[in-house]
Amino acid sequence: MKKFLLSIALMASALISWADVVECTPGNLSNLVDNPRVEALTITGQMDARDFKFIADKLELLTSINLSGVEIVVYSNNKPLLNNEVRFPENSIPAMAFFGKKITQVTLPSNLKSIGMAAFAGCESLAEFNFPETLDSIAAYAFSDTQLSTVVLPEGLKHLGKGVFYNIPSLTSATIVTTNNIDIPESAFEYCSNLNTVNLGNVNSIGERAFKGTTQLNSLNFTSGNNNLTYIGKEAFVGSALADFNFEQASGLQKVDEWAFAQSKQVSANLAATPQVKKGAFYYATDLTSFVANQATDSIADLLLAGTAVGNDVTSNTQVSYIGRYAFYNSLPSKLSLPATLTFIGDRAMAGMINLLELSCDATEVPELGDEVWIGVKQPAIPLTVPRESHEAYMNALQWTRFLIQWEDGPEPVFGDVNQDGFVTAADITAIYNILLGMSTDYMETADVTGDGEITASDITAVYNVLLGNRNAPGRNQVVNDSNDKVNAQDFIIETGETHNMELQLNSSAEISAMQLDLLMPQGLSIDNVTTTSRTSGMVMGFNEIEPGKWRVLIHSGNAMKDNEGDILNIIVKAGDDFGGNEFITINNIIAVEPSERTHLINEISVAVGTTTGVSDINASINDGPVDVYNLNGQLLRKQVERNEATQGLPAGIYIVGGKKVIVK
To answer: What pTM was computed for the model?
Structure first.
């Protein structure tokens, strides 16, 4: 029984938590603490790194330590002790001294100067910590992964190490207001996801990822002004909630590094005093509405403002020569004034700028472009103002040419000019047709001619009406390129009050899907009707007298007309009482458009029109020898035939026989 009771007593003793008070001499702590299960420990006297090594290795249950009565003395040895270090200065908590401990309460010596690397890192129960006023240095990761809720650092602090408060989700506020110019180090508060208020004093720099992932950081206050700030590091505020960083206070800021404010909540950035703003510095900072660049800057970095809501004219009055890849991707400026110094714009730099309404470029030499610079931009609807002497160069430059290019006091945009070649022709109708039939996405922005928000057949009608003179809007019908194609019609005679079907033929070198032509009618003749033929069956046709005596005919279709030769139109001509006879119909401004929108100019023709003379053929009694027979276009039809045979078998019309005009009915 006694043996059993003794065993129970020993087991109970092993489970008891201990509190201990010891007076230490350097290196002697291990001999003073008998129970490794001690939870609370008060130490007085002197300690060195060997004693902290004992705490780190042996006191696994330690939750509270009071070092207020301790003097930490220097220790050095050739054999590495903590963190592979061999020399440990006085008044310093050595590296990793309390790493991963369950400690909840720490009281430090009143004369403490420094805290070593990762000294309290991983102390997941450490929620409060009073930093001694004598403290001037805290090494890397000293308090990472703890449970601190508030950090107030002493005014005399001179140095903070990398990641000093890394990944402390419980931390809500930090104050670093010192009398020294201090650097906020790399990853100082990275992933402190609930940090919402930071008070800073005189700061030289904010290091890489210093506030990355601080998704609740609403306020960053520079209590003494931040004129000493010269550098903001890579990803310094990436993903933070910071909205009001005051760049205007940072008059000495020299560089904002890559991704510094990417995906943050920053709403404005006046960097007029900052010469270097690097790649992606504000990438997808979606609340950013205003960005002011340094006027002397020579570049807009890659991805700098991609995905932002910046709406102001960023490049105006700058010396920018280079705009990087995706620099303005999906941003929202309504106007850009590209400077005369610009030489290059990178891949997709302006892609998705759906709000862009106005663009100018003062560069006399057309800037080179990367791939798909303007994709998603409504180019054909946007006026681009360029130097007058460079207008032609921009018109012929790939990607630039799709803008509505003009110069100061230059030509106004042409209403109905869907394909933005500067003119209204049948090619604009073909462009709309190709969109409606799903064969093209070109000119989507300008195909909505009526402005009703949709592309429908009404837009074709709108262009149609411009061409036919029914819409009071500017239009200039010009040809695009020459062609050797031919239009023909036979001469004919017509009596007053009668009509005549003038058959119009087209011989073309390519398939044609749209045509326009003008007929200049002599006094007394008009067009009564126009119909298609079997060759143009199914095509849409319209005609109108756009000026007195000038008639315009249009035909168009989503498909090419059948074959490449033959009749295309039946033009019904009517003779009024005032028709005098022996006149010509001139057919000009003949434009034929291929389905690809390639436009052909076809030479004008004249059709002779006369009235009946009562002579149905040449009198057989006229027999003055052989004669030549010509039509009114000067084409030789018969050579040296007898007069009485000169017109036999010829269709009705007007001919020149032996130098005299003869009408055959």
So the answer is: 0.65
